[in-house]
Amino acid sequence: MKRKMHVVASVLAVTLSLTSLVACGKAGDSTSTTSPSASAATGGASTAKDTITALLPPVSPNYQKNFEQMSKDFTALYPNLTLKIEQASWEDVKQKLDTQVNAGSPPDIAFGGSDGIPKYIEQGLLMDISDTATPDMINDYDKAPLEYMKNGKGLYGFPAYMEVHALGGNKAFLEKAGIDWKKVQTNGWTYDEFRDAIKKGVVTENGKTRYGFVFAVKGVAAVDYLGIMAKNAGMPNAFNKDLKYAYTSKNYLGLLKDLRQLIDDGSMPKELSSVDAGKRWNMFLTGQTMITGKGLATFENSAKTNNAKITANDGSAVKDSIPVDYIVLPAPTFQGAKPSASTVVDGYMAFRGKKEPTAEHKANVVKAAYFLASGKVAATTNNDLFAANITQSGKKEAANMKIDRNPDNVLAVENMLKNATPARSDIPSDLSAKAIKLETEVIVPKFQGLIAGEVTPEAMYEAVKTAAIAAFGADGVVKD
């Protein structure tokens, strides 16, 4: 699965101001409540039939199994409206969406990362809903995650969850290596401390090697690894506060050297470039690595599920897997930088076609997006993910749902959220789009070459620097 989930800690730990959003003047239900039926009141008086389309991947293990019920529940709330869901896999959802966007006929709603918003704004088909989302919808949210769905003053959808990208450790292996994981959860660790720890995690038994650390880097997953670590190397975003491109900093070169060093140490496999997300998780469950990344809230749930299958001995567990007590760990800091935890906010983006939608259809799209992102749907999905809820309506629905999480892991996520990377809605969409293009065309292939031992850190740094100056100008990049 792609990534994601959310924090079991309160996202109010992240203090971000939220610009007030005003609903449009269309008449509707004025009842003050956080339930989706009352909150999604925009254009409530209309009885005209309408269909809203949504392109949705498997957000949680059981998410797509609930599509039929979700559509029924939506029509029960709005008898004149139909929610038509197109199912997609994580592997093809982005391609499907891009194909439809390029054809000028995207779905009304698509699930994806908030970091993709600038790209779709530049293509002209993402829909600003700040004039249509009602105050009840806006006020249902914790403030921090909603910021991620904004660009400038525009709001382009509703977030589903906010999660921290962490690492995950095997408790037994950590303790065998003499690592005080509780201390790390509380205080974090520097690159030197992390490097020393994963060296101790390398063990050879019966001719097989257990590595100290494995991260999925095959394909576009390479940029996840680099991006998460860059935030902890003094570069929390591709642009600094002066809107200068940050990856031309000397810290970037230092980071590249450090990440290559972990492979040269033997703490990570030399074949790391061939490790995708599935293989990375398989290696963790079969005891081939002490620490894995990126570690997400749902991984604890997945590990417990596999443990139960091992106990049942019914043949459904991952082949050759062992019982694992999953421990959440922060990423290390680099170059003496302060911690800046990588947060991920994914959600339901609102799209329009080439033709301007009617105010009524736009209001219906907002109702559907909010329905998916709040209340019972959000609570059910986030519970499946081991993720906390970011709406009051979701929290209310989740109150009677059981969730079995390691309290140490809950506290670890809370600690990371205190240093969460803030949203940057101030970055112009054209700059963000250029940065995404540079990342795709230069950073990803060069970093894959670096991981494979085909490109040196210095060569990659110079390639990124050259491309950045070409894209942003000599005065538009960091010089230090």
UniProtKB/TrEMBL annotation:
Record keywords: Cell membrane, Lipoprotein, Membrane, Palmitate, Signal
InterPro entries to which the protein is assigned, alphabetical: Bact_solute-bd_prot1, SBP
Annotated Gene3D superfamilies: Periplasmic binding protein-like II (3.40.190.10)
Keyword Lipoprotein: yes
Signal sequence bounds: 1-25
Record-given protein name: ABC transporter substrate-binding protein
Species assigned in the record: Paenibacillus pectinilyticus
